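Long-time lurker, first post. I've been practising inverse folding by hand and with some scripts of my own, and I keep getting stuck on stretches where the C-alpha cells seem ambiguous. Below is the full C-alpha cell string for one chain I'm working on. Before anyone asks, I'm not after the true native sequence, just a reasonable design that respects the backbone. If someone could post their per-position residues I'd love to compare against what I wrote down in my notebook.
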C-alpha cells in the first residue's frame, strides 16, 4: 500500500527529505506522495520514515492503493532500475 498525506499536513518540510524513493513532493499547501514511487520504505527501512518524523501523524496508508509486501518489494526493485 502506498501512503497518503492528509489535509492535516502542516507543510513542515520534514517528510520530503526522509523518503528514499523521492515519492514525496510539495503540493498545493501540503505535501503529496506519488503512489507509483511509494514502497512504504520496503527495501530501505523496516518502517516508513515519513511516518516516523511527521509531527502531526498525517500520513496513513492510502486505501486506494492497496499492495502486498511482495508487490512493494517488486516496486522497490523496479525503482532501483530507473
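-- Answer (accepted) --
I ran through it position by position. Result:
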Amino acid at each position: 500500500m502506498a501512503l497518503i498525506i492528509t489535509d492535516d499536513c502542516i507543510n513542515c518540510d520534514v517528510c520530503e527529505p526522509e523518503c528514499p524513493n523521492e515519492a514525496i513532493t510539495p503540493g498545493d499547501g501540503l505535501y503529496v506522495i506519488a503512489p507509483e514511487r511509494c514502497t512504504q520504505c520496503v527495501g530501505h527501512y523496516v518502517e516508513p520514515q515519513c511516518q516516523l518524523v511527521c509531527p502531526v501523524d498525517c500520513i496513513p496508508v492510502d486505501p486506494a492503493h492497496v499492495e502486498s509486501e511482495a508487490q512493494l518489494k517488486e516496486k522497490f526493485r523496479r525503482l532501483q532500475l530507473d
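A couple of notes from the structure itself: The longest strand covers residues 24-26. The chain has a mean pLDDT of 96. Happy to go over any region you disagree with.
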